Structure formats: C-alpha cells, structure tokens
Amino acid sequence: xxxxxxxxxxxxxxxxxxxxxxxxxxxxxxxxxxxxxxxxxxxxxxxxxxxxxxxxxxxxxxxxxxxxxxxxxxxxxxxxxxxxxxxxxxxxxxxxxxxxxxxxxxxxxxxxxxxxxxxxxxxxxxxxxxxxxxxxxxxxxxxxxxxxxxxxxxxxxxxxxxxxxxxxxxxxxxxxxxxxxxxxxxxxxxxxxxx
Amino acid sequence: xxxxxxxxxxxxxxxxxxxxxxxxxxxxxxxxxxxxxxxxxxxxxxxxxxxxxxxxxxxxxxxxxxxxxxxxxxxxxxxxxxxxxxxxxxxxxxxxxxxxxxxxxxxxxxxxxxxxxxxxxxxxxxxxxxxxxxxxxxxxxxxxxxxxxxxxxxxxxxxxxxxxxxxxxxxxxxxxxxxxxxxxxxxxxxxxxxxxxxxxxxxxxxxxxxxxxxxxxxxxxxxxxxxxxxxxxxxxxxxxxxxxxxxxxxxxxxxxxxxxxxxxxxxxxxxxxxxxxxxxxxxxxxxxxxxxxxxxxxxxxxxxxxxxxxxxxxxxxxxxxxxxxxxxxxxxxxxxxxxxxxxxxxxxxxxxxxxxxxxxxxxxxxxxxxxxxxxxxxxxxxxxxxxxxxxxxxxxxxxxxxxxxxxxxxxxxxxxxxxxxxxxxxxxxxxxxxxxxxxxxxxxxxxxxxxxxxxxxxxxxxxxxxxxxxxxxxxxxxxxxxxxxxxxxxxxxxxxxxxxxxxxxxxxxxxxxxxxxxxxxxxxxxxxxxxxxxxxxxxxxxxxxxxxxxxxxxxxxxxxxxxxxxxxxxxxxxxxxxxxxxxxxxxxxxxxxxxxxxxxxxxxxxxxxxxxxxxxxxxxxxxxxxxxxxxxxxxxxxxxxxxxxxxxxxxxxxxxxxxxxxxxxxxxxxxxxxxxxxxxxxxxxxxxxxxxxxxxxxxxxxxxxxxxxxxxxxxxxxxxxxxxxxxxxxxxxxxxxxxxxxxxxxxxxxxxxxxxxxxxxxxxxxxxxxxxxxxxx
Lengths: 195, 777
What we know:
heterodimer; A: alpha+beta; 2 domains; B: Gyrase A, domain 2; 17 helices; 30% helix
C-alpha cells in the first residue's frame, strides 16, 4: 500500500484533521481495524486483522526515519496493541549494491561495506548507493524488501508501555521544551553526517 | 531482528532532528545561506550562469543543483531559487530573474520551464569572489563525483543583509534584512574596537518600524520583535497605502480590510470601498471613506485590526561548525571578519604558491641564459633527453621543474630582450611574494584589505534605507477605547447565558422595603458594576478565560432581555460562562483570586491573564470534576471572607497563600456542610467596612467584621444567616447597593441597611420580591 510523503502527526493533530486525512483512514481500513467515527476509538479484534505483519518501508535516509516515526505515532495513538502484539515491522533496505563482474550483492550499511572490502582485497567492483525506494527497480525491491526469503525486517517490540507513552508525547507531542532537552541530551548519538 | 519501540523511535528522531537542524533549515553563519541556497549559487557559478552571460531556463539550473548537489525535491529547489530572486523578499536579490517570479500581490511564480535566471551581479562579486582560488573548504557531493564548497567566501555580509527563516525540530530561526551601508559601518566600527550599531531592520518593502527604542536591545541579544506599519497618504477622502509591512501580500490585506470594514462584524465604520490600484508605478491600496469619516482614526484602527501593522520577530540562530547557535550583532560581525580573514589568507596562499613556482622557473631560466652555450653543448653531448635532464640536475644544480622549463626553451628566447623581460618578471614576482607574505603574517594588513573590499562593495551596491524608524506609542486598549463614550453601567448575566448592560443612572436609590423597579431577568448568575471603557473577563465551565469589551455588550433596560453570550465570544458547544469579573475598580491589584463552589481558593498573578488576544481564550483554572466557580475577583494582600449559600462565613488571611500558575486548582478555602456551596468570596479592602448580607427572601442586614472572627483557612466558619443567602458585599456608608430580584429590583443606600448581630435575621429590603443577586454600585 503506497503512502506518499509524510503522514499526519497524530500526536498533535485534532480529531477533525485526522478524520479528513484520507491516508490514515485508509490504513485503518486496510489493516482490518474498525473505527467509530464519532469518538475516533479504534477497536481491534485479533481475528479481524487482515495481515499478520504490517511492514513500514521507507527510504534509508533521515526523512525515511521521520516517516517511520510518524507511522509509529499513528499506530500508537490508535491501536498500541498492534505494536505490543508484535504485528508492526520496519523494512530495512540495504544501503549499497555492489556489482562484481556479473554478480551483485546487497550491503546493509557502511560497516558491512568496510567488512566486505577487507574480506575481498583487490577485487574489482562498483558500488551504487541506494538512496531511496523510488530509484530501485522492481527486481531490486523484490529482492531486498518484499521477498520473505531475502528481505530484512525488524519487529518492533514494547517492553515498557508507560515509558513509551511518555516518549511519544515528548518527541512527537505539542510541547517544544521536552524535545529540545532530548536533542541536547542525545545529539551526540546521531550518526548523521552533513554533506 | 527486533527493536524496542523506544529505541527505534529515539534513534529515528535524533537522526532526523540533527539532520534537519544542521543541514536544512538553519543558515550557515559565515555565508548566511541555507544548504539549498548555497548549492544553487555554487552550481550556477560552476556552470557559468553568470551575469555577463544570457539567462538560462530555470529548470536547467534546478536540474543541475538536484542532480549534482541536492538530492531532494525539485519544487523545494525551485522555490528557494525563486525566493532568492524576489525583490520584495530579498533586500539584495542573489538571483537575476527573467520572467514571472511572483509578486507582492500574492501571486506565485510561473513554472520552472517558463522562467529564466542567472546569478545576480552581487552574488558573483560578494559571495563567490575568489572561490576559484579555493579560498574555502570543499567536500565531495553526495554521490562523490563532484565537489562543493562548505561555505561561500562572502565579502558581502549576507547573513545580516538578507532575510532567512526556517523551522527545524524544536528550533527555528528568523533573520531580518538590513541595509548594506549600515551593516558595513557597523563592521568598520567593530574593526576600530567601537561598539557596532545597527539602526534597525531595512525591509525591501519599506514601511515604518514603530518601536525603534526596542532595537538596541534586539541587537544586543539577537532576539525581540519589531512592529512594522505600512505607509499611507491622504487623498481627499481616501486613505492610500503605498507601502505595506514586510511579509504581507496585497491580496491578504484586501481580504483583512474588507472583513473589518464590512462583513458581519464591521468593526470599523466609515469605509465605503477598498480597491487595489497597484500598477507598474507602484503599490497603491485605496481605502475610500465616507464624507464625515475621521481618516486618521480609521487608519489607526486599521493598524490595530489588520496586518497593516505587523509584528516581526528576530530569532538569530545560525550554524557555527554545524551547531545551531544564537548570535547577536557583535557575534555576527566577529564571524564575518574571521571568515573573511581566513578566505583572504587562503586566497593569498594560492597566489603565493603560484608565484613561487613561477619564480623557481624564472630563476632557472635566467641562470641558464648566463651560461647558455655551455648548456647547449652539454645537451648536444647527451645521448637522450632523459640523460640531459639528469645531467643538468646533477652538474648544474637545477631543480627538476627548472630543467623541464630549460629543455622546453624556444630558440627565440636566446634573444637579449628575453632576458630583460625575465628579469623584469622576476622583480615583479619578488615584489608580489613579499607583499603576500606580509598579508599572511600581518593581521592589520588583512583587516585593511577586507575593509577596502567591503568599501568597494558598498560603493557599488550600497543604497539608501527604505524602512523608516520611529517610536510611536500605541497602547492597544486606549486606541479602541477612544471611540467609546465612557459610561458607568451594570452588566447583568443570567443563568441562561443572556448578557446585557444597563446604565447605572437608571437605578435610583430608594428607601428600603420599597416596591423597586420591574425587572424581567430570570435567575441571575452575576451582576457587575463597571464602565463601558472596561473589558470583562469571562470564565467558562471548561476553565477558560475570554475577554469581552463592555462596550460590545448590548445595551438594554431593566426589563429587556439580553443577548446570548455565545454570539459575542467563541465558546465550545458544551461550554458555559460561569463567572464574570472586571478589573475596572481594581486596576492596581496584583492577583486574580478564584473562589470555587466546592470550597477551593486559588490566587494567580494578574499579568498571567493580561496577555490575551482578542478572541482566543486561555486556560484560567483547573476545575475539579463537579466543581464550578463561585466568583472571581482581584486581590493584593488583603484578608478575605468566604460566604456559603446556607449562611456560613469564614474570615482568613491570604498572604500565606502562594500565587500559582494559571492551569492549577488551588487550595481549600473552607470546609462545607452537607449540600452547601460557596456563594462568594470577598476581599476586605478596609477593616472598617461592614459585611452586608441579603437573603433570598428579601431581607438584609450588615454586620461588623468583628462578628466574624479570624480563623485558619479550611475551617467551617461561623453562621451569619439562618436562611439562604442571595448575595453579600463589603460596604461602607457611601455605597449604594443594587439588589436584583424577581419580579422587582431595588437600589438601596448602605446607610439604610441596619447594623445587626450575625444571628439576627435582618430587615425587609424589598416588598413582595425575591432577591437573586447583589452588586455594589
């Protein structure tokens, strides 16, 4: 199911905004959840769920990371049980595609690339950096993201419901101060390197 | 693979936040450009889209930027490019445009396939000069097949001269444009160790800044806001605006003016028509007024009620080494000078390296010419040119570069003249090398050169200030009050949410137990004695506070029905007004004090309730489930008396109650008996005042304060009446009290109310009528 661009931040949005948002409403439908349009309360019957795995796939860049968070925020606000029960996954697209002669290989991240280089000294190869889902061919997408044998997905788990609630409110909510604090505290952990 | 949601959310968030804040929305402090703008300028320069060449299709430039340096959406690149060209946004446009790039009326630009552009001259001279000499750092682009500069040289102080705004994650910036000549003066002053001064922002759209006195502090801190007004002239009965505040569009202004001068609300009288007559000669918004209208007054009201006066904030945040940093004027200038020194040194080093390499060769050639016959013989005797090369290095001590040049010498250079020329060149090189060494060593010399370059830039591009700076005092309330005739009134608010105001003079003092005058109000919730120039504070069942000008409350008589309050303020569907108060008599008060029906008291600093815009409410109090407000009033440090419906009263001090924030519930005021509720809390302004109590049955009395002994807060209090109380007030002998009742109301003098003990039952105040509400006039 294609969801284009950044979806609505459900932590901040008003009920009216959410009701008007076609993408959110379609997703609720598509998952097999039922929603009461007046109260916007979602009910979730495990047997009515259409899919066992709901996998969010986004670009392997910072905007992709943001979109993932917006998606989690949406699910957490409407139906945290989906995540708690382990139905939500994130697709992990590879960062590089190596072509060695006629063969090719996907490489997950920078570390894996360095490892490969160390393990195969002197081999001739060309590297393509996969910047977004949009630039992959159908075959590439299949090989890396949709084929259950090949793809890498990670299951999103919850072990501290209350703490998760607080963190969502802190990072995605309306208050700015908490976010500022969080950035101050954690900005060193970012691997993002401005080009 | 598994990942805990907290971990996943946190990592994603921090990656995104850091990327957005350091590589998207905040400009670089050195060149004052966001990454996308920097890349547009660099790519245009690199591709030769310069001012001395014809314009090229904008789509081409966008394509170059996107493909080589900025792997993001084309619309955001084109948008940034259009903005860099807009003369009503940029004080000094950096892109020269051909075609439709939008306009101040509010229209957007044509699509990128239609428009053409190239670098503006000032970008080449001011932001890219010397970049070919690699005077800034370069890094590989995202795909590592090209290089881009980390920042631009920027002898043009772009950070201060041009505007910038951006919203990051939990962080934002807003830079206002300034005048180049003034910025240069500030920089020169700083170089001379004087305090740098900027008179204020200079918007490309002109206008008047009306709070000039705030500017020195803004320059000191990098924060604060300026109020900008449009400029107008009077032509017959027309107000003609020919400059509008920065950031507004004609279209939006026309809408706003139309709304306040006509439409449902019609807040401004006397405007008959609004037209846009802007053309190529300039901007012209014509506001046609009726014959008897006061044009100055209409203009002032327009400033108050529309964006013809706009507040614009300074929020000077820029990146230093990729870290968002708050900067004041001195910081900006310091960065400018350091950056330009650095560029100058690199540029000079580049020239120096080149000159030294050339000097090496010239030296070699001159030496070779001295013994040229010998060298020719040596070369002739060598077996190959490689042997000749080695031999020359070994035998004569030439360097490799020198030998290469000697072997490449043409026969014509053997002419005598050639050696004269070479000698000349050598002298020149030596001069330059000495000078450049001096520049690299000598800071004063560097400063002097930066000064010269900046002066040249100012001479070429400096222009006169467009925005006027003034100090005009505009106390908001008074401006509106100006149009209102002050009149003492009583505002009556009923339980069914009807509100009206009745002139104070329509209540004549009568002897007690008279018949009174007819009134038709149903149950009364509040009566307030105030004045038409005052503003009411309305508190709702959701704990919000809204304001309402008394003048906007419909005037009525004793017997008329009021208007529904929901037509005057914006309430939610399930929200009711439950208390009303007015500051009119207590304008020196420090606190707002709330008494709730369930026996809570809360005091909060008055200023927390004063910063409120027209129609949007604020949260005033946190009401517990099932609780409601009894009344809201004002307080300094006085003691208070709290009275319940069933006739209990408690008297306690308030100076030990600490003031707390708006969104709080407060502390207990008194312990309530079963089915009792707080009716009113009264501050005691004068200890000699008496407490007047009126019962629902229509009797009244006053009791001395000594009858209600001082108690600790939270107690039960003492009985002051045996029947249900309708209202109470603290009075002295000069007061008149209005008793609003059914079917009649009466106004009595304080002297006519008997002073009695707290257990006695009082005298009849009104004949054959109940009392519902009491107010001191």
